[in-house]
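To whoever is covering the structure queue this week,

Two jobs came back overnight. Logging them here so there's a record in the thread.

Job A:
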Amino acid sequence: MSTATSSRPLTAPSPPAPAAGGTRRRSRTRTRLELALLLAPGLVLFAGFVLVPIGVAGVYSLYSWNGFGPLTDFVGLKNYVEAFSGDVFQSAIGHNLVIATLSIVVQLPLSIGLALLLNRKLHGRTFLRMVVFAPYVLSEAVTAVIWLLMLQPGGFVDQVLRGVGLGGLVQQWLADPKIVLYTLFVVITWKYIGFGVILLLAGLQGVPAELREAAALDGATAWQTTRHVVLPLLGPTIRVWIFLSVIGSLQLFDLVWIMTLGGPANASTTMATYLIDHGFKRYEFGFGSAVAVILFIICFTFALFYQRFALRRDTQGALTRAVS
């Protein structure tokens, strides 16, 4: 009995297709390696210049140490108790909070108003922007020296006030405990207002012109358009500015140290000047380290809460979009 043979040609079996799960795993592993290589240098620098100093300061703060010799006089939390119970440090915290509050109440509306003005098509707009931003380019030391000379008795500010018939307003700007902090705030505003204006101008570039035109067609006035269209869309930029302003106010040091050294009678002392005065001028490095840790905790706590309750909506999904 004969058997029929198939006429189809014989073909070699094809190799099995790679598993989809294995490909995805290799892709994830490669992505993690790339992220590790890219982030490693920054993480090393962050650890060496931020985390390690914080840890060292935390250790020093538990000792009564003058900066010389080994750490032998362990005092525990005594430095923290002395800092919080001292009237000068309590006043320093209050001064930082006053500057932070004034920054939000005064600098923010002023920055928004100047940004809206400089965002219009004005003759010489570029020059005006440069004039507003120029003080921010100056270093804190240069700014402090310039204003220290202008605010001295009989200086430029006094001469200008007398020249325009306002001689009665002349004060001991940096020697009167009642007004020295507010005088410093004027200098701070002059120095940093340009940064806020430039930041808000960048935010205004993201407001679509079509929305303003639509509001105008609906009969909205310029103020109504600004209030109900522009400012809400400028909200993320404003919240970022507030965060930077408050953190900067809590860490204020350069201008105050050069202009007043925290005086007169500690009327302009900030947490940073108090830290430098005790840690470096009086060689109380253990106590100064405790103040530094307190300042870090205050700033870090504010940053966490602000991120959680104010910036969460603005940053939600930002990391996912960046990785994608």
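Job B:
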Amino acid sequence: MQCKLMAAVLAAAIPLCASAQSSVTIYGVADASLAKEDTDVKGGSRTVVNSGNQSTSRVGFRGVEDLSNGLSAVFNLEAGVALDSGAGDSVLFGRRAVVGLKGGFGTVMIGREYTPIADVANASDINGQGFYGSNLSSFGGATRLTRRISNSVNYKSNSMGGVIVSAGYGLGEQATGPSQDLMGLAVEYKANNIYVGGGYHVVERLASGDDKEMIVGAGFTIGPVEIRGNYMAADPTGKGNKYEQINAGLSYTFGNNKIYGNVQQNKLEGGAKGNGASLAYSYALSKRTNVYASYAMLRNNDKATFGINSAGANVTPPATAFGADPSALAVGVRHSF
């Protein structure tokens, strides 16, 4: 069914590309790697072909129509694709599905969108939320931060001297009980090789109180050197539930080569702690194609089972394997189109 729907979307997009009134771009990423993953438990080591180690493999459609007087209609549909099996995500356009208006006031989008916190997390991660050891391990589920919101209305301002304001409201669409609504806000500054950002979410998940999520991040570029780091926290309703992650990374570019390094700490109230480190290398064969190698390891204390995440894979010990130390190594190729 998904294949038929994708074919229908592609067929519909072809005549639009030739329209003089609007433009539609078909784009995507194809990323695959050979990886050795180890959760540090008996039978937990395996060799796999992964899709999306540096960037999640995807195909997308984005379009814009000039409505005159500085106003444009815009949309974006983006679907994840697993190159190792050819399968699509369980939700066809689960990565992004939005439509809206753009003008001098900024951009308003309605649909399934990235949260305000997600923008800051991506900009302040030296790995670009790819490679093993990225900050993607801080997202997902009721006890972590929220990366995407469905049923949402979102606003992003135009740059005001380098300052960009983002806001999102995701409707839980509940008839009774806690609303499940998410309200988020982020402020970013991007200018003169400097990046600073912060974001905050409130989620009305339980009747007993609201869950809170926050991030602060920063980055600086000096010639071939980039420095990026962030602090992220999810504080669900109740005592002893707070999760925290800290990242600090550096990259160095020389010629077609780029080296990435990052250190990371994960903590839970109650004493669980995991310290990790990652190293990656990328060689650009062209503007669109590169080969890469990625390695990460994480050391958990006797109360922790934290894992390692890349853009399209995660290596996490079983929930009862306290103190297990996961690691992963991958070599791959990435092509964008």
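Note for Job B: The longest helix spans residues 2-17.

Please reply-all if you pick these up so we don't duplicate work.
Q.
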